[in-house]
Automatic annotation (TrEMBL), chains A, B:
<protein>
    <submittedName>
        <fullName>3-dehydro-L-gulonate-6-phosphate decarboxylase UlaD</fullName>
        <ecNumber>4.1.1.85</ecNumber>
    </submittedName>
</protein>
<dbReference type="GO" id="GO:0033982">
    <property type="term" value="F:3-dehydro-L-gulonate-6-phosphate decarboxylase activity"/>
</dbReference>
<dbReference type="GO" id="GO:0019854">
    <property type="term" value="P:L-ascorbic acid catabolic process"/>
</dbReference>
<dbReference type="InterPro" id="IPR001754">
    <property type="entry name" value="OMPdeCOase_dom"/>
</dbReference>
<dbReference type="GO" id="GO:0006207">
    <property type="term" value="P:'de novo' pyrimidine nucleobase biosynthetic process"/>
</dbReference>
<dbReference type="GO" id="GO:0004590">
    <property type="term" value="F:orotidine-5'-phosphate decarboxylase activity"/>
</dbReference>
<feature type="domain" description="Orotidine 5'-phosphate decarboxylase">
    <location>
        <begin position="5"/>
        <end position="206"/>
    </location>
</feature>
<keyword id="KW-0119">Carbohydrate metabolism</keyword>
<dbReference type="InterPro" id="IPR041710">
    <property type="entry name" value="HPS/KGPDC"/>
</dbReference>
<keyword id="KW-0456">Lyase</keyword>
<dbReference type="Pfam" id="PF00215">
    <property type="entry name" value="OMPdecase"/>
</dbReference>
<dbReference type="InterPro" id="IPR011060">
    <property type="entry name" value="RibuloseP-bd_barrel"/>
</dbReference>
<dbReference type="InterPro" id="IPR013785">
    <property type="entry name" value="Aldolase_TIM"/>
</dbReference>
Length: 214, 214
């Protein structure tokens, strides 16, 4: 099992502060994500500018694509995204449309596990050749005080067994990393923890925990 | 039951052509929608510019909000949207966060019915005071040749009975309008049919069908 990478989610509402945050932690993270809030705040230009500023990072465009898959995927990949997120609630035809464009660009699709998704859905995504999914506590669920549960961890293990590599997110802090040992983890995604002034220290602490458990 | 309104979905990838399309049909439609593709293509500025150009239309921001609800809702409503779409796959805490902001701005939330939503979900949305939902064939499902079915119509009737007014979309053409007679319909949403050069005629034909069946 390869070591999980560290991903910063940029969820600023405007591009300039997002570029500053990315610049501050770029040397400490492997993956930079244009979060949904930034993608809507600044539009596709956010993907273009971050690609330009960080040509060697993996760049994620977090659109949580739910429909119009082919067009959105083309826009995101042409602007320089490596990975595009697609909602688990999208029709399988939408997921397939995104995957087809991803293949043309030699990029990847990540399924965002929101809503009442099923393991049958997960098998259908795998059958399309999709290798990645994102597992998270909803940001709003997190704000409502819902923590990581055994149920979460069991679901992650089952998705791992189906061959999906997971990016894990939702208020990730260094002290949580040990919970996910043994799960096929592609990245740990953090937003606010890495965007703070102590972002570099937080990233280093996450990296240290990863080294301990993987 | 009030007469359904007509909504144009702007799904251009850039703002200028979208403004032109809106201008062409503004006098023929009641509701203008910044589609997800346009919202990502041009960012929140698309909402601002369309609000400015069409101060008297109902303006929808189709973000299919799935997380980060409070921030996205605030952005959309501050930019001038009247209605914001929220994915049926969003955590109920996200839906509640969006509804709270909508109430503060005296605007409305529309639930976009994607994924494995349930009638229990629909009751939970109603319990939050949400009055609108959007029912559609997925654009990609439509491209894959999946038509309107009895199952669709039965679901719509059941949602009507729960007190949800529906906006209906997915390749809407005048000849389909009669199918939805008796359903509590807020708007019929069309994109490409209204964006074409014959957009005004199509809108007039839809209006004529509405007059016949409502």
């Amino acid at each position: 099992m390869s070591k999980p990478m560290i991903q910063i989610a940029l969820d600023q509402t405007q591009l300039e502060p997002a570029l500053k945050v990315a610049e501050n932690v770029a040397n400490y993270v492997d993956v930079i994500e244009v979060g949904t809030i930034l993608a809507f705040g600044a539009g596709i230009d956010a993907v273009r500018q971050l690609r330009k500023a960080h040509p060697n990072h993996i760049l994620v465009c977090d659109l949580k694509t739910t429909d119009g898959g082919a067009i959105l995927a083309k826009m995101a990949f042409e602007a320089g995204a490596d990975w595009l997120t697609v909602s688990a609630a999208a029709h399988i035809a939408t997921v397939a449309a995104c995957k087809k464009i991803a293949d043309e660009f030699q990029r990847e699709i990540q399924i965002e596990l929101y809503g009442h998704w099923t393991y049958e859905d997960a098998k259908a995504w795998r059958a399309l050749g999709i290798k990645q999914a994102i597992y998270h506590r909803s940001r709003d669920a997190e704000l409502a005080g819902v923590g990581w549960t055994d149920e979460d961890l069991n679901k992650m293990r089952k998705l791992s067994e189906l061959g999906l590599e997971l990016s894990i997110t939702g208020g990730i802090v260094p002290e949580d990393i040990h919970l996910f040992a043994g799960i096929s983890t592609k990245t740990f995604i953090a937003g606010r923890a890495l965007a703070s002034e102590s972002g570099q220290e937080v990233a280093a602490a996450i990296r240290e925990q990863i080294a301990k458990y993987w």
